[in-house]
Specification:
The complex is a heterodimer of chains A (437) and B (482). Chain A is α+β, with helices and mostly antiparallel strands. Chain A is 22% helix and 40% strand. In chain A, α2 packs across α4. The chains are: A alpha+beta (437), B alpha+beta (482).
Chain lengths: 437, 482
């Protein structure tokens, strides 16, 4: 697989302006089956000296290997050229045009009392990947990613609080149009409000996840839990449950790398298999997993287009693309009323999976208490913890499609290998342990 | 004796009459990896070769500095010329409030630098990894009902070089190893669910001789996870060992005690009481085997030891060249090209990033609290947290928190039943008078341990917020600070 990434990034904060080209990525990775294992070499640059060196390194590894079996699973045969081809590419905006946009947003974000520091960032890149294999696959894709965000920080009497708002999608300048003055100001007002937020409650309670947090739940629970390399290693608590009902009938959860424009979308994966929509939970029934060619071979399944490398320097293994909970039919007000007492978790920060133990961790920047069926006090950052299966059993409602979002995030697997993924959903009501964070 | 290649000089020599000031930071990295599924090798990678350089120009503009930066993996004359043009272009746009930044002047490296290179790994990376993997698998032999479900070891061998317009030219070599092992405990007649302990670490060297002790610990944690109960709920005395502190303290300290935060009004107040009396925290770029250690920082200033917190009070500010000039101080040798969200790339690919103030190797000085058992003896009712899912400390608010993956209840001065689930959280530093981890230390242990870029003893915190569904909350721990 050969890769080239080009782009620019810029950050304006209260003290400095910094623009630069995105970190350069230009290189190639070679992979071969040795008979018992995969072997790989990689090198930056595409000149003859670099390529020869990498090829010789691969041959050296192969020479030391023992005879064995043929490579596991089906080789891809995808042929084609795929391109996001934005109508208004970011490069046409130019550095000056992009900076003008950044300065305008900075004005919006700082035009709110108590905002003593703010940061506005914008980055875009054009990523090209070209995949070839000995089975005849020869496919090229270009993905144009744009991400922009604001972080306002409110400070008063030595207490500092921040809020954040960001957008990330495949496409061009039209993505900037979706960052409105009203949305940016809401983030600044959010940071200011957090200065007087109360500490969150602690313990087991009803939890209403906002759409972004629901997406993080989808990612950490059934996303990582259904990456089938964990099945092959006997490291997934979910594996014995395949085919069984594990949640309410109104719960459907999918991974879909083919959603046009979504942050985690790809045309084909790093083994050359086309991306697709893969149901993981269908109306409460656990129905599928995410596969590369090796796990598909081991478990009698088909590759799902989920083999991804963070870049040509990283390994290829089973990864998510865009993972989301499908909408239900509850209104927000109905969900709050159903909760009666509990907490709304808002503005996700991160999540953490536990593939064997079946636990999960979600962190959010803020939330609101729910008391007697009404949304009341703002509270500061929290962590949610709990058993995924128990959390599923306790789901009481899922919000309507009008609230659906697919947020742009980054996912690491193991220790590193961070790559772009989308997480999505609507409001979701369940029950879990919550504590300050 | 290893003579590292000086790619920075190779680039600098072809910059022609480029106007000063400028610097070039270059790396040649070779990476080798071995991945195991159970005891079977499923993937070997390497060499993965990455060569590149970052060119930085500092241009005076309206009493400020326009910083131009361009990185490249192409060492051809054309590419270097393009990098200069691009850096000059971006310098025209950029503004940083430093009126007269001065790059470090060339000088010979210190004779006795920190140990940052594993000679065995350097001379035979693939063989050393293969032998380590064999030793890792063998260390589980004979253990009943405990196996490694997967593991990986990734070694990065880097030749770093720096050159600048003052004539500085220096190169050094170093190694970093990332280890990841998932240990699974299973079986038994009672049908309990399996348990797992997931170990991750970043070090400068591989130590196969430590494996028997480590695998015994990991196996115990995995086994204990199987029967662990929810922790108590409430404000609870908490003991945090270095393994956990390494995931909490550095992120907040390196920002809140750094010049970037000071310039932006986000740093702790100079001289303020940020920690318990008796607490000393150093930044030591010369600390042997520290992942953040190096003879020079990433813009060429020699590394040395700085006092970040002295007797609980904020002391020296960590700074690079630009922020130092903006604040009218001198660089402390803390210009680092780290950053980014991926802990697996922070120590390499540095040429793609510009310097910013950051800690090197942080050292929480040992106290008089004794060994771990002696610390535990001082707790009547609390918890020992062995692992948090992801504490995700936040540099702006100073807060941290996450799920307890494995820990132990402490009852009457002894470790009791394992706990798991629920959350633990609080603030690393907070405004004066507000509770925080550093301010509420009851005991500072006497036995420091290096974990990545933090050396710390075990700490007992008087109270942190713990959520659990065991409502029998613990009582406050007796004892005085320090």
């Amino acid at each position: 697989m050969a890769q080239r990434v080009r782009g620019e990034n810029m950050t304006l904060d209260s003290k400095s302006l910094s623009t630069a080209a995105s970190p350069p990525l230009l290189g190639v990775v070679f992979r071969a089956w040795s008979g018992t294992r995969w072997v790989e070499t990689a090198v930056s640059g595409l000149d003859e000296r670099a390529l020869t060196g990498a090829a010789e390194g691969l041959e050296s590894q192969l020479a030391a290997s023992r005879p064995g079996s043929p490579p596991p699973g089906p080789s891809a045969t995808t042929v084609g050229s795929f391109d996001t081809a934005p109508r208004r590419p970011m490069r046409d905006l130019g550095t000056e045009g992009a900076l003008a946009w950044v300065r305008e947003v900075f004005r919006w974000v700082t035009d709110v009392p108590m905002i003593k520091f703010a940061r506005v960032s914008l980055s875009w890149n054009e990523e090209e990947r070209h995949y070839l294999n000995t089975a005849g696959a020869n496919c090229y894709q270009r993905l144009d990613r744009v991400r922009a965000g604001v972080v306002p920080v409110a400070i008063e009497n030595g207490r500092s609080e921040f809020d954040a708002f960001s957008v990330g999608r495949l496409g061009g300048q039209e993505i900037l149009d979706s960052i409105t003055e009203a949305a940016v100001r809401r983030a600044s007002e959010g940071a200011r409000a957090l200065l007087t937020a109360k500490a969150p409650p602690s313990g087991l309670m009803n939890v209403l996840l906002d759409p972004g947090t629901t997406g993080t739940f989808a990612h950490e629970s059934f996303g990582h839990g259904t990456e089938a390399d964990q099945f092959v290693r006997n490291r997934s608590y979910l594996q014995p449950l395949l085919g069984r009902t594990i949640g309410p009938e109104f719960l459907t959860l999918v991974d879909d790398g083919s959603i046009p424009g979504a942050w985690g979308s790809i045309y084909f994966d790093d083994e050359g298999h086309r991306s697709q929509r893969t149901p993981l939970v269908d109306h409460g029934q656990f129905v599928g997993a995410l596969h590369d060619r090796g796990t598909a071979f081991a478990l009698g399944a088909s590759p799902t287009g989920n083999t991804r490398r963070a870049d040509f320097l990283g390994q290829a293994f089973v990864r998510m693309t865009n993972t989301s909970v499908e909408p239900g039919d509850w209104s927000y007000e109905e969900l709050v009323n159903e909760a009666r007492d509990g907490i709304v978790l808002e503005r996700w920060l991160s999540g953490m999976e536990d593939p064997l133990g079946g636990q999960m961790q979600l962190k959010v920047l803020k939330g609101h208490r729910i008391e007697k069926g009404k949304v009341t006090d703002l509270v500061s950052s929290m962590a949610l913890s709990g058993s995924v299966l128990q959390f599923l059993r306790d789901i009481r409602g899922i919000g309507k499609a009008e609230h659906r979002e697919i947020d742009a995030g980054y996912c690491g697997k193991g220790y590193g290998d961070t790559l772009p993924v989308g997480d999505g959903g609507t409001y979701l009501l369940s029950r879990a342990l919550v504590g300050p964070s | 004796m290893i003579t590292p290649s000086n790619l920075a000089v190779r680039v600098a020599d072809r910059l022609g009459g480029l106007a000063a000031p400028w610097d070039v930071f270059a790396e040649r990295s070779r990476r080798f990896e071995i991945h195991l599924s159970g005891s079977r090798v499923e993937l070997t990678r390497g060499p993965i070769v990455l060569e590149g350089y970052g060119l930085r120009l500092l241009r005076a503009t309206d009493g400020q500095t326009g910083v131009g930066f361009q990185a490249s993996t192409d060492f051809s004359n054309d590419a270097i010329r393009t990098a200069v043009e691009e850096a000059e272009k971006f310098a025209r746009f950029n503004r940083f409030p430093a009126p007269h930044p001065e790059l470090p002047v060339g000088r010979p490296p210190t004779a006795n630098g920190a140990k940052i290179l594993d000679p065995a790994l350097w001379s035979d990376p693939s063989g050393t990894l293969e032998r380590f993997a064999v030793a890792l698998v063998a260390a589980f032999d004979g253990r009943n009902g405990v196996v490694p479900s997967f593991s990986s070891v990734k070694a990065t061998l880097t030749e770093t070089s720096i050159a600048n317009s003052t004539g500085l030219a220096h190169a050094y070599a170093h190694t970093v190893v990332e280890t990841e092992v998932a240990v699974k405990a299973f079986g038994g007649p009672e049908g309990r669910p399996p348990g797992e302990y997931w170990f991750t670490d970043i070090e400068r060297r591989l130590d196969p001789q430590a494996l028997p002790t480590l695998t015994a610990e990991w196996s115990r944690f995995a086994e204990d996870a199987r029967g662990a109960k929810s922790p108590p709920n409430g404000e609870v005395p908490v003991v945090l060992p270095p393994e956990v502190l390494a995931g909490i303290v550095p992120t907040v300290v390196r920002f809140r005690f750094g010049a970037a935060a000071r310039l932006r009004g986000l740093a702790v107040e100079a001289g303020s009481q940020v920690g318990t009396e008796g607490l000393d925290v150093l930044d030591d770029g010369m600390f042997d085997w520290g992942v953040g250690s190096s003879p020079l920082d990433d813009e060429g200033t020699p590394s040395r030891t700085r006092t970040v917190i002295s007797n609980g009070r904020a002391a020296e500010l960590l700074s690079d060249v630009l922020h130092a000039d903006a604040l009218r101080i001198t660089s402390t040798g803390n210009g680092a090209r780290t950053g980014g969200m991926d802990p697996g790339t922070g120590f390499w690919r540095k040429f793609t990033r510009r310097p910013t103030p950051d800690a090197s190797t942080l050292v929480i000085a040992a106290g008089d609290g004794g060994t771990d058992p002696e610390i535990i003896e001082q707790v009547d009712d609390g918890i020992w947290v062995q692992q948090i899912g992801w504490a995700q400390p936040d540099e702006l608010s100073g807060r941290f928190g996450g799920e307890i993956r494995i820990g132990y209840r402490i009852r009457h001065g002894k470790l009791a039943e394992p706990v798991r689930g629920g959350t633990v959280g609080g603030a690393v530093v907070a405004r004066e008078g507000a509770p925080s981890l550093l301010h509420d230390l009851s005991v500072i242990g006497s036995k420091p341990k290096l974990m990545g870029s933090l050396s710390s003893p075990t700490l007992l915190i008087r109270s942190l917020s713990v959520s659990g569904d065991d409502l029998a909350a613990a009582t406050a721990v007796p004892g005085s600070p320090g």
